[in-house]
Design brief:
191 residues; alpha/beta; Calcium-transporting ATPase, cytoplasmic domain N; Rossmann fold; 2 domains; 44% helix
């Protein structure tokens, strides 16, 4: 993004964007960048006249209901909770440890997310995938059950098997609970 401040053109964006399209050199700031990335910060860089002049470190906040949702999913019989994330490995691992997840795949692209899911399915697992972005659509379509958040992108909602009516992760656990009830009733009816 290009913007001006007192007639000075500032360019803000990802490291990739500034390196490739603006020829900004980051080498003098590598240690500082690594420090903030290891703290789990998502960095936005600011340049002026092709020189790095600043960084903004954003921190992700967990949804309030994530811990309760994961606990309920385990109580409902979900045996393995896996995170597939585009985040850097150190950030994704920190989050996975905090949430006591069973496995994490970091630095995943949209295509690699679907490849990971395909591999999980080929190993005999039934895969439920929750996503909300365009980058999640290949994974949503590859999963046995794809669940999209109601506030997700239109493409994610169109691709998913289930679209939640509330933007709440607890709705995922409620969906699994209702699916289990429906399955038990179907078995009872067929017997």
């Amino acid at each position: 993004m290009k913007t001006s401040l007192n007639d000075h053109c500032l360019v803000m964006g990802s490291r990739h964007f500034l390196e490739v399209y603006e020829a900004v050199n980051f080498s003098a700031f590598e240690d500082e960048i690594v420090k903030y990335e290891q703290m789990g910060r998502h960095l936005i860089f600011i340049s002026h006249q092709k020189q790095l002049i600043g960084m903004i470190g954003l921190r992700d906040h967990l949804r309030e209901d994530v811990v309760e949702t994961l606990s309920q999913l385990r109580k409902l019989g979900i045996k393995e909770l896996i995170m597939i994330s585009g985040d850097q490995t150190c950030k994704a691992n920190r989050l996975a440890d905090e949430l006591q997840l069973d496995k994490v795949f970091a630095e995943a692209t949209p295509d690699s997310k679907s490849v990971i899911i395909e591999g999980l399915k080929q190993s005999g697992k039934t895969v439920l995938f929750v996503g909300d972005g365009v980058n999640d659509t290949p994974a949503l379509s590859m999963a046995d059950v794809g669940i999209a958040m109601c506030d997700g992108t239109e493409l994610a909602r169109q691709t998913a098997d289930v679209v939640l009516l509330k933007d709440s992760l607890l709705s995922v656990a409620e969906t699994v609970k209702l699916a289990n009830i429906a399955w038990l009733r179907l078995i009872a009816i067929s017997n």
